[in-house]
Amino acid sequence: MTPTAGPHLEATFFLDHDSAPVRDFTQHVIAGASSPRERASLLFAAVRDRVWYDPYSVARDREHYRASYVLETGRAYCVPKAVLLTAALRAAGIPARLGFADVRNHLQTDTLRAVMGGTDLFVYHGYCSVHLDGRWLKATPAFDVELCERFDVPPVDFDGQSDALMHAFTSDGTRHMEYVRDHGSFDDLPLDRILTALDLTYGRMAPGVGVADDAFIAPADAREATEHAPVDPSGSSD
User: Fold this and answer.
1) CA quadruple 51, 52, 55, 59: dihedral positive or negative?
2) Where would I find the Transglutaminase-like domain in this sequence (predicted)?
3) Helix, strand, coil shares, percent, the chain, to 5
4) Higher-scoring residue by pLDDT: 38, 211
5) Tens digits of per-residue pLDDT, 116-162?
6) What pLDDT shows up at residue 210?
7) Which of 19, 41, 107, 119 makes an SS bond possible with 68, Cβ 3.0 to 4.6 Å?
């Protein structure tokens, strides 16, 4: 079934693709792309690599979850990154919505585990659900290429033909990501539901405290580097 234009293409407070930053970002990334599949693949790679994955950036301020804000800061955790990709896809005329799942990250750092109360369960991990060629596909742009290199995990690639979810294993066969529960898809960000789930699971976290040497921390020049990163849907540096 082809989705209607309304709920899957419209702009919202969070999916603010009617803002100049999101429009400009989208137009720059997809320039020259000849098909919706190619546009989706380019946008996925751009969001994945131009916004550093930062699990310590969890915030309660609604403004921090707007696509335009994510572009401005250049760092976010999985939920705002999924918001940005969904907004950019809609700006490109591609129906998209948000999806969420509980996942276990078996490569979680000790520091992050402590902040999360000793668990490796990430509730309401955010991904994007995109409609291409008559099908809904799942794509998670969370981990950028540089972070994947740190953990020896292949970057997630999206070709517009199949789901692009977190890898179950690292390059050497170590267990990485385990999908535990899928919460389904949403036309807009259910922020209150997500924050409630975070509070119930972890209590009131204090992200960013004493994590200067954690593997998830971005290099000092990450913002400048991601702003000018080339768009390569394959994630290859060749």
Assistant:
1) negative
2) 24-140
3) 40, 20, 45
4) 38
5) 888 889 999 999 999 999 999 999 999 999 988 888 888 899 999 99
6) 44
7) 19
Q: What is the dihedral of CA 185, 149, 92, 76, to 10 degrees?
A: 60
User: What's the CA gap between 59 and 205, in Å, rounded?
Assistant: 10
pLDDT for position 9: 96
Q: Please list, in sequence order, all residues whose beta carbon lies within 8 angstroms of the beta carbon of residue 97, skipping any fewer than 6 positions away.
A: 7, 8, 86, 128, 129, 185, 186, 187
Tokens matching residue 74: 């250049």
Do β-strands 96-105 and 52-53 pair in parallel, antiparallel, or remain unpaired?
unpaired
User: For the chain, how big is the Rg over CA atoms in Å?
Assistant: 17
Laid out side by side, the sheet with 177-186 consists of: 135-139, 121-132, 96-105, 177-186
Where does the pLDDT of residue 236 fall: very low under 50, low under 70, confident under 90, or very high at 90 and above? very low
- Which residue type occupies 106? H
Q: Scanning the structure block, which residue is given the tokens 């979810």?
A: 165
Q: Supply the DSSP symbol for 164.
A: B
Cα–Cα distance for residue pair 20/26, rounded to 1 Å? 10
Question: Which two tokens mark 121?
Answer: 């369960």
3-state secondary structure of 179: strand
HEC string for 73-114: HCEECHHHHHHHHHHHHHHCCCCEEEEEEEEEECCCCHHHHH
Q: How confident is the model at residue 235 (pLDDT cuts 50, 70, 90)?
A: very low
Q: What is the chain's length?
A: 238
